[in-house]
Amino acid sequence: MKERVIVLGSVNTDLVVKVRRLPRPGETVIGGTFYQNQGGKGANQAVAAARSGEKPVTLIAAVGHDVFGRESLVALQRDKIDLTHVKVKDGVSSGVALIMVDEDGENAIAVASGANTALSPADVNEVPDSVFESAAVLLTCFEIPVETVRAGICRARQFGVTTILNPAPVPEELPADLFSDVDIMTPNEHEIARLLDLPQIEDEAGARTAAKRLLDRGVRNVILTLGARGCFFAGAEGTGFLPAFQVKAVDTTGAGDAFNGALAAAISEGRDWEDSLRWASAAAAISVTRAGAQPSMPFRKEIEDFLKIQG
């Protein structure tokens, strides 16, 4: 049965400082609390899928031979994620993200990618066919090399696996023919502006225009996440706007990862489009009420209870 979620992506350690406000260029801001968490978009999304879903989750990723890598794998094992295809690379450090979070939960992030950049198409192609044969969804992002993302999407397409591309961070160059192999693309307003060289998305009309341009390039469905405003979706599954659930944000660092991981889990369970989007939006809403990225990913019962309250 095709039910597995494959996440192809990054593993990082997040080093976080809480600040009153984000510093301007050249400015030093005295921060408050410091904490360290496991992160990386791939790892975060895998945790979100594992916690919110009921189907097996496999992570394809890379870490270095160091304490950050070891601690990351231990954390992922706690969520029963299949780590068989996580490579431990020689000669490179594990990925590290330096994160500042202000009083409103907004963040600024710089990443030293380390072993993530060493995850290769060959690593993806070494994964047995049986893993892809059993998969319903492949979720990937650009914190690993573009050619590795492409290899994963190509293999997924060979086995009829639904492909979700979270185009973050947006690479300098993106192969034009990649778009036609993407079933669902999930940019935020900053990423879609950079992808298409557009001004910032200010309203639903702007979201509609931007989404159409991605659809014209061959993407089958676009989900444009707009933070506290909600998400706009367009494509083969229909067009519409889903307002965000209203919550008090503490830290928005992992919101997109919560959304994408929960979306992948929902699709793997055969939920319909509207239900999948609502499930993902609820996961993202819960995540921003907590500090950290991976620690903020909600569990299935938390999402169910949240949606019952929301009605």
Automatic annotation (TrEMBL):
What does the record say about how the cofactor binds?
Requires a divalent cation, most likely magnesium in vivo, as an electrophilic catalyst to aid phosphoryl group transfer. It is the chelate of the metal and the nucleotide that is the actual substrate.
**Principal location:** cytoplasm
Q: Which Gene3D superfamilies match?
A: 3.40.1190.20
Q: How is its activity regulated?
A: Activated by a monovalent cation that binds near, but not in, the active site. The most likely occupant of the site in vivo is potassium. Ion binding induces a conformational change that may alter substrate affinity.
Q: Which SUPFAM superfamilies match?
A: Ribokinase-like (SSF53613)
- The record places the active site at 257
Q: Does the keyword Chloroplast apply?
A: no
InterPro entries recorded for this chain?
A: Carboh/pur_kinase_PfkB_CS, PfkB_dom, Ribo/fructo_kinase, Ribokinase, Ribokinase-like
Q: Which reaction does it catalyse?
A: D-ribose + ATP = D-ribose 5-phosphate + ADP + H(+)
- EC numbers on record: 2.7.1.15
Q: Identify one Pfam family in the record.
A: PfkB
UniProt keyword GTP-binding present: no
The entry's K(+)-binding residues are: 251, 253, 287, 290, 292, 296
One GO cellular component term, please give it.
Answer: cytosol
**Can you give the residue ranges of the Carbohydrate kinase PfkB domain?**
3-298
* GO BP, one annotated term: D-ribose catabolic process
The highest taxon in the source lineage is Bacteria
Provide the protein's localization.
Cytoplasm
Reported cofactor(s)? Mg(2+)
**What is the stated purpose of this protein?**
Catalyzes the phosphorylation of ribose at O-5 in a reaction requiring ATP and magnesium. The resulting D-ribose-5-phosphate can then be used either for sythesis of nucleotides, histidine, and tryptophan, or as a component of the pentose phosphate pathway.
The record ties this protein, via HAMAP family, to: Ribokinase
> What is known about its subunit structure?
Homodimer.
Q: Which family does it belong to?
A: Belongs to the carbohydrate kinase PfkB family. Ribokinase subfamily. Belongs to the carbohydrate kinase pfkB family.
| Protein name as it appears in the record | Ribokinase
Q: Which gene encodes it?
A: rbsK
